[in-house]
């Protein structure tokens, strides 16, 4: 006997509500994780909107200087 794949997938309202609950749970977990990261790196990352690269360069004392083209 050959088993056939289902021809349609039925979506119930209970499935939608379960999906919404799980999605909200993972969003809160993600927000908590981001807040922990922000609190962890808070003193390093000022609200001056510095990029990660700028923070690292500042920490190691690197001051990038543009090269002048000699033409």
UniProtKB/TrEMBL annotation:
Alphabetic keyword roster: Cell cycle, Cell division, Coiled coil, Mitosis, Nucleus, Ubl conjugation pathway
Keyword set includes Transferase: no
Record protein name field: Anaphase-promoting complex subunit CDC26
InterPro entries: APC_suCDC26
Family: Belongs to the CDC26 family.
Compartments it resides in: Nucleus
Gene Ontology, cellular component aspect: anaphase-promoting complex
Major location category of this protein: nucleus
Pathway(s) the chain acts in: Protein modification; protein ubiquitination
GO terms for biological process, alphabetical: anaphase-promoting complex-dependent catabolic process; cell division; protein K11-linked ubiquitination; regulation of mitotic cell cycle
Residue ranges of the TM segments: none
Domain of life, source organism: Eukaryota
């Amino acid at each position: 006997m050959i088993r056939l794949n289902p021809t349609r997938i039925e979506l119930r309202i209970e499935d939608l509500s379960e999906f919404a609950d799980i999605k909200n749970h993972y969003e809160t977990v993600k927000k908590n994780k981001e807040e922990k990261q922000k609190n962890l790196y808070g003193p390093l990352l000022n609200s001056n909107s510095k990029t990660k690269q700028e923070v690292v360069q500042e920490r190691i004392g690197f001051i990038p200087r543009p090269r002048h083209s000699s033409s």
